[in-house]
Amino acid sequence: MAMTITEKILAKAAGKKEVKPGENIWLNVDTLMTHDVCGPPTFQIWQREFGEQAKIWDKEKLVVFPDHYIFTGDKHANRNVSLLQQFATQHNLPNYYDVGTERYKGVCHIALAEEGFNLPGTVLFGTDSHTCTSGAFGLFSTGVGNTDAAFILGTGKIWEKVPESMKFTFHGQMPKYLTAKDLILQILGDITTDGATYRAMEFDGEAVFSLSMNERMTLTNMAIEAGGMNGIIAADEVTQEYVKRRTNRSFEIFTSDPAAKYHSKYEYNVAQMEPVVAKPHSPDNRDTVRNVAGSKITKGYIGSCTGGKISDFKMACEILLNKTVKVPTFVVPGSTEVAALLETETYKGISLKEILLKAGCSLTKSSCAACLGGPADTIGRSVDHDIVVSTTNRNFPGRMGSKKSEVYLASAYTVAASAVNGVITDPRDFL
Amino acid sequence: MKNRIEGKAYVLGDNIDTDQIIPAEHLVYSLSDEEESKKYGQFALSSVPLEQAGLPDGGIPFIKGDNHLSEFSIMIGGSNFGCGSSREHAPFALQKAGVKIVIAESYARIFYRNAVDGGFVIPYECTGKLKQEICTGDLLEIDVDRNILKNNTSGKEYHLKPLGDVLPIVEAGGIFEYARKTGMIES
Description:
The complex is a heterodimer. By secondary structure, chain A is an alpha/beta fold.
């Protein structure tokens, strides 16, 4: 039977020759990821349910990144990080990346890639909805809650309903001004926030395979914003080169059969696409940047698992070189590795860090930070009637802090151009 | 699982996301400490814009003042209920506030799984747009065996979609209870 890449990977993890959409199957999990918000309750449920005999099914397969509420005085948030530390020490966890040490990484989805846990052909679950990001490496990855994670922690298994797949093919050569963020916001506008509920979103086409791994991760990252179970891009030479540079762990490459069945197929020609935003208050509230150009903003924000990668800061710097921002603009590297790269990577001979600081941006430490609001003292958190233009993933009411604030989601190009003008600006004016 | 559940309706619109159900700044409280976890009830649905809270008229807070329990125990939602983050704190917050059942046109996958696998609330799907038929405060009665919803305020009856594949997990009270019952893990 012809199968999609998602079906093939799930069949392998279920120990079956083939699986069909709608079928409930039990999967053997290759990697479980958790962080400071969901780790402590996950470990608590695991202890409660498995009791004195509770055993972690495979310590090598558990990865823990504190990343959400790190640089805060909030005592409850700090307690969660302490609980992770205690658990990691007690169980001698090999893959714990502690705050305040050289191992500290930052945002889990970027860290998973950098630390070599995104292995093509495997099944990865995480206690975070943006776990779908890892699918950029040709693996099945999806988010679960604490109870499901605790079940995996003790058994290495979880049930899942095989999803139908939707295919999004991008033809043509990417124009300079177009980014993966524009592609995924375009899709969201077309299919809406529940257009892919319980389905796999498969990305294909020469434009997709021309993207760097960082940009591919932006595409799969926002599959959840359409309700998708997973986002996936088949692994190619670019993927293998990235993975081999990061790890010696083994992996297997799967691709969709030409005759595989899809729920639906969407085709785009990137040459005809233009920069877009998602207007307040939903990621599917798409409009062209051109149409909303001139709209007032009070803040710019470049960061998060979606838009805090080195590729995003490179784009921002192309626009910010020798310019100054007119609104407070916050720059949050997605990981400590990205933060280090800001000092060594250059644009026109000047380090990205210098370009950002000279432009007047506020550079902060790596974490999820204000993408999801966070504790009251989180840097960059929206206040009162703020209007933020941001490279993040969600603009629901109250998402970045204040319930009265508004958030425009956009690419790093669009955020940088808008920050320079103090109003929403089409990046083509600068590029 | 009780086979008959009664309560007052609280009606919401489409795309009620997890940030509206329980804002991220509150995710720091313990879920296991009995006293501290009441905070989740207290802040349940606290980010729903007031004009959209308690339809059709709106302006009805789900939680009054500093309470952690709501007078409403049956949630009526539109499409894509629980979209957004994976936070299990969302169905947990509804349960802590006293919600027993959510009836929506459709759900986001992770919220649905969390509600079922954690045994927090029963996520029923309705046919048609119940949010336009039912008013916040209506007295509802659900016959779980027959999948029938009765609105005792209007006298109307509605069929709910059967729980299907997840029924055994809902009946067991969650994924761990289900796994013990079926011998997947030791009891």
